């Protein structure tokens, strides 16, 4: 059996935190940002790595890319030890940081891409081919001569993704890639990433807060909370396990007793507004129709489950140990 | 690779031509005031620490040249603390290039050309008083190159303090800029112990003092052995080597503890 | 600014004092650096005065004292830019300064009061400490009479304010220039040179000396230092304090004029 592309076993990472406790004294505490973390990712997978803030997501990514070394445990990416073999590993991965750009600020996109070809020593023909292709797919062709400084957030993000892919990395790490993007841009980006994985077999590791990113892109989800994996499996399984639900917020014309309708539970009533939760994998349409048919509805809206809810549910429902 | 990145920055700066030229000129004028100060000093005396105006000018010019070269090469190393805070250092760690090369090439600027020009002018003037021989010419070239390397090592090594702390970074200035300032004077004005520290501990005396003694045909006023006057490259190698070790340790610490 | 109670300015100054006093580690590091440079320049000046014991009318003890006074005052008067005008420059660049223009206290008064508060902190920390180091390591001279000491103390806030106005004007160029760095570099260089930090102005020969002593920068270091060293007596003391006051008033007027122009620009063009 071949080694997995990304292999993490019993990973621990702790930090020493110094705090001021009074005028002169300092307390020193050891905080485990990541502990007992194990998972493996095969080549070609698209994995969502999700968890609430402070769960240890960025710490894990840092350890996978060679920025941080584990306190203990085993981590191999593409058969290499990330920190020790940093330079070699860097040639085989692409990293996109959501908030900060890796492009050179004052210069046109074109110059950044040229420089990257030199840095990664990509074969010029291959570089040209990739560049043309990605520029076309991500609709950046007209912007080649625009200084990065003048690009919008969405354009810059697309530029960063091209920059990360020009050298044909085996793995693409994406840290919050759709943050701050409008709905259309998000959709296009997701489409692009799906196609990338399908055609090139690029392994995708995506950390995000946006569940819809996960829904659109990932077959597999690893949920990390308080430094360790609490779930590792399919997205559908996650919804089932977490019993995650969406919420239909109904604004009735007048106050009324809790709505009673099949397929949903009324969780909360405040004046004319009621919150109904229904299973996340069910369509909202029949529910909306049923409510509208039986009640005087002024307005409706749907709330998606957010990560914290899903994870909270994960904890509250007694579950068998995570599969695989 | 360094060259490719550096030239990118130069082109970026050239986009703002006026600003770039203004800064370069300002840099030159600024350092020119140093030379004026030397001239003013010698309006009151003939010998400073036993050295005449053209000799002090030679020392100053050589030191300033070395400093200007080093300043140009180190790029953003002095700002590494800022790179850590903004996360830019992490980004650099994901690229297949040695970290030091990336940091030195980042925001590369030719602004220092102002200082280098000024230093070259002063040095050239002082050089007219030197009794040149082929050996001396060789030593002069070695001196400038080694001087740049020694200061380069000095700044890189002391910038590594920013891996440990973000508050006490000014501490490093005492050694980096202090060291640079010291070399502008003939070392005879300092106590013997200081001269020895600058020879064996932090070898900035090799930036200009020892080679200039040879160029000026002077015996070592402290009675130090003459072979030191040819040892600038040795000191440079030692300094750069030490700096690289300190840098590696700093990066190692950074990747071991995060921030 | 008219009719604003003094208490408000004191409050601003106190807040600035407190804000800067939190940078403890940086202050210690700074004191170390000041001391190192103090030592270096002391040896340099000792060599100079060894060759010419009476240069500029100073003796070697005067000269070394001058060095340590310079290092002690370096942060206090913020010769090298620094101080609250750095914040101002940042705020002009980012555009946040627009808020400052509508504060109840005039912008100049606000930043000046803050700068004085900051200067007070730097005087106590990075002023006192290097002086003590200098006293331990070298032979320094103290003000010869109580009048000299008093005059020196009076000249300090004047020096800070004077330095402030100069830095303020430099910062304001950011309203018009896209990149104010060149101006700042040049202004810094002039400040260091013409205040006496590079060499005491008493050494400057002929026309250069006359020029240097007439420029406002001399009021930032040279004048207070000479008062400490007891170089002036009687009417001359008042004269030199008057020199500081005169330049201060002129420059404050310039600051106000520049600020008015800048405000017009911000309001009309949106900064």
Structure summary:
The complex is a heterotrimer of chains A (324), B (259) and C (271). Chain A is α/β, with parallel strands linked by helices.
Structural overview:
The complex is a heterotrimer of chains A (324), B (259) and C (271). With 324 residues, chain A is of the alpha/beta class. Chain A folds into 2 domains: 6-240, 3-Layer(aba) Sandwich (Rossmann fold); 245-304. Chain A has helices at residues 57-65, 86-92, 109-120, 124-137, 153-165, 183-200, 211-217, 235-242, 285-294, 307-316; strands spanning 6-20, 26-41, 46-50, 72-77, 93-97, 171-175, 203-207, 220-225, 228-234, 245-252, 265-270, 273-279, 297-303. Chain A has a 6-stranded mixed beta sheet, with helices on both faces. In chain A, helix 8 packs across helix 10 (307-316). The longest helix of chain A is centred in the middle third of the chain and has 18 residues, at 183-200. Chain B is built from 12 helices and no strands. Chain B has helices at 2-15, 17-41, 53-74, 80-86, 88-93, 99-105, 113-127, 134-159, 170-182, 192-201, 209-215, 232-257. In chain B, helix 3 packs antiparallel against helix 7. The longest helix of chain B is centred in the middle third of the chain and has 26 residues, at 134-159. Chain C has helices at residues 6-21, 24-51, 60-76, 84-94, 97-100, 107-137, 146-172, 181-195, 206-214, 222-229, 235-269. Chain C is globular. The B-C interface holds B 16, 19, 22-23, 25-27, 29-30, 33-34, 36-37, 40-41, 43-49, 165, 167-171, 173-175, 178, 181-182, 185, 188-191 and C 23-26, 28-30, 32-33, 35-37, 40, 43-44, 46-48, 51-52, 55-56, 178-179, 181-183, 185-186, 188-189, 192-193, 198-199, 203-205, 208.
């Amino acid at each position: 059996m071949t080694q997995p592309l990304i292999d993490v076993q019993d990973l621990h990472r702790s930090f020493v935190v110094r705090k001021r406790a009074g005028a002169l004294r300092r307390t020193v505490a050891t905080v485990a940002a990541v502990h007992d973390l194990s998972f493996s990712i095969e080549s070609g997978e698209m994995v969502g790595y999700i968890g609430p803030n402070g769960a240890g997501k960025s710490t894990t990514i840092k350890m996978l890319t060679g920025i941080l070394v584990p306190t203990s445990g085993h981590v191999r990416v593409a058969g290499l030890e990330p920190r020790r073999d940093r330079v070699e590993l860097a040639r085989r991965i692409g990293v996109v940081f959501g908030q900060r750009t890796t492009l050179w600020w004052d210069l046109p996109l074109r110059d950044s891409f040229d420089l990257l070809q030199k840095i990664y020593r990509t074969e010029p023909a291959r570089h040209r081919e990739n560049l043309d292709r990605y520029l076309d797919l991500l609709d950046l062709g007209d912007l080649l001569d625009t200084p990065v400084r003048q690009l919008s957030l969405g354009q810059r993000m697309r530029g960063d993704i091209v920059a990360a892919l020009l050298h044909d990395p085996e793995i693409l790490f994406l840290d919050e890639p759709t943050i701050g993007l409008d709905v259309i841009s998000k959709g296009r980006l997701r489409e692009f990433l799906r196609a990338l994985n399908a055609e090139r077999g690029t392994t995708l590791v995506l950390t995000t807060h946006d569940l819809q990113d996960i829904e659109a892109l990932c077959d597999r989800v690893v949920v990390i909370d308080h430094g360790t994996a609490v779930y590792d499996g399919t997205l559908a399984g996650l919804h089932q396990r977490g019993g995650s639900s969406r919420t239909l917020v109904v604004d009735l014309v007048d106050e009324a007793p809790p709505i009673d309708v099949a397929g949903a539970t009324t969780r909360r009533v405040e004046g004319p507004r009621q919150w109904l939760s229904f299973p996340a994998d069910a369509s909202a349409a029949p529910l909306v129709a049923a409510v509208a048919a039986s009640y005087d509805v002024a307005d409706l809206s749907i709330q998606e489950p957010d990560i914290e809810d899903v994870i909270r549910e994960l904890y509250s429902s007694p579950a068998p140990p995570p599969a695989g | 690779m360094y060259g490719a990145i550096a030239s990118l920055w130069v082109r970026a700066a050239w986009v703002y031509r006026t600003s770039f030229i203004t800064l370069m000129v300002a840099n030159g004028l600024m350092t020119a005031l140093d030379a004026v100060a030397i001239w003013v000093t010698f309006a009151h005396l003939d010998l400073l620490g036993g050295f005449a105006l053209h000799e002090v000018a030679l020392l100053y010019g050589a030191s300033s040249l070395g400093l200007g070269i080093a300043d140009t090469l180190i790029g953003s190393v002095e700002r590494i603390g800022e790179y850590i805070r903004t996360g830019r250092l992490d980004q650099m760690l994901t690229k297949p290039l040695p970290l030091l090369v990336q940091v030195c090439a980042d925001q590369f600027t030719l602004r220092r050309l102002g200082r280098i020009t000024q230093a070259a002018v002063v040095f050239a003037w002082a050089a007219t008083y030197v009794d040149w021989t082929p050996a001396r010419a060789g030593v002069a070239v070695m001196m400038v190159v080694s001087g740049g390397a020694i200061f380069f090592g000095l700044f890189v090594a002391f910038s590594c303090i920013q891996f440990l702390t973000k508050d006490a970074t000014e501490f490093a200035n005492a050694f980096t800029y202090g060291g640079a300032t010291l070399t502008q004077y003939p070392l005879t004005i300092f106590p013997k112990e200081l001269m020895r520290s600058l020879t064996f501990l932090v070898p900035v005396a090799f930036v200009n003092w020892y080679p200039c003694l040879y160029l000026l045909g002077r015996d070592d006023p402290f009675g130090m052995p003459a072979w030191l006057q040819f040892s600038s490259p040795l000191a440079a190698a030692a300094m750069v080597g030490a700096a690289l070790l300190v840098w590696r340790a700093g990066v190692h610490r950074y990747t071991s503890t995060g921030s | 600014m008219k009719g604003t109670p003094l208490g408000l300015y004191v409050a601003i100054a106190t807040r600035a004092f407190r804000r800067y006093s939190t940078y403890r580690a940086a202050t210690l590091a700074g004191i170390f650096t000041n001391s190192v440079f103090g030592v270096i320049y002391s040896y340099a000046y000792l060599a100079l005065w060894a060759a010419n014991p009476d240069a500029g009318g100073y003796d070697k003890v005067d000269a070394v004292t001058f060095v340590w006074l310079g290092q002690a005052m370096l942060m206090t008067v913020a010769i090298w830019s620094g101080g609250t005008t750095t914040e101002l420059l940042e705020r002009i660049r980012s555009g946040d300064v627009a808020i400052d223009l509508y504060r109840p206290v005039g912008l100049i008064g606000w930043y000046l009061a803050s700068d004085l508060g900051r200067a007070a902190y730097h005087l106590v920390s990075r002023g006192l400490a290097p002086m003590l180091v200098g006293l331990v390591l070298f032979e320094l001279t103290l003000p010869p009479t109580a009048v000299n000491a008093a005059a020196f103390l009076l000249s300090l806030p004047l020096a800070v304010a004077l330095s402030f106005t100069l830095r303020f004007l430099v910062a304001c160029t950011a309203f018009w220039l896209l990149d104010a760095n060149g101006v700042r570099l040049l202004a810094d260089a002039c400040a260091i040179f013409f205040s006496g930090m590079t060499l005491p102005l008493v050494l400057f020969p002929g026309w250069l000396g006359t020029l240097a002593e007439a420029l406002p920068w001399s009021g930032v270091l040279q004048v207070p230092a000479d008062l400490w060293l007891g170089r002036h007596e009687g009417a001359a003391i008042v004269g030199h304090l008057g020199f500081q006051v005169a330049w201060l008033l002129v420059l404050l007027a310039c600051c106000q004029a520049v600020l008015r122009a800048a405000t017009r620009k911000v309001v009309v063009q949106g900064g």
